């Protein structure tokens, strides 16, 4: 109301609204940025990849000697899975 004309008053009003929005945005983003930094530090500290996959023996695949595997696979003691069939065929054909 104390502005000389409409345009200068509107300019001051817009600047004030922009400042308020900027402060509100900082209130929201600051905790999120800190949380992200904390999570990144935790990941680096534990030295674990986020998208890592276990590289051990897949479920249903039996580890052990080839002779033991062939014997158990032939006696139906080992499940008939794609991975087991591939291993059996690889052993037989080598």
Summarize it.
The chain is mostly helical and about 90 residues long. About 65% of the residues lie in helices and about 0% in strands. Helix 2 (about 65-75) packs across helix 3 (about 80-94).
Notable features of this structure?
single chain, 0% strand, mainly alpha, 2 domains, 94 residues
Q: Could you describe the 3D structure shown?
A:
It is a single chain. The chain is an all-alpha fold. It has two domains: 1-52; 54-94, no CATH class. The chain contains three helices and no strands. The protein is rod-shaped. It starts with 5 loop residues before the first helix and ends with a helix. The mean pLDDT is 82.
Biggest beta sheet summary = none
Look at the helices and sheets and give the structural class: mainly alpha
Q: What radius of gyration results from the CA coordinates? A: 33 Å
Relative strand content: under 5%
Would you report the number of β strands? 0
Q: Which parts are unreliable, with pLDDT below 50 for 5 consecutive residues or more?
A: none
**What would the average pLDDT be, to the nearest integer?**
82
Tally of distinct domains: 2
Order of helices and strands: HHH
Which helices and strands appear, and what pairs or packs with what?
Blueprint: H1 6-46, H2 66-74, H3 82-93
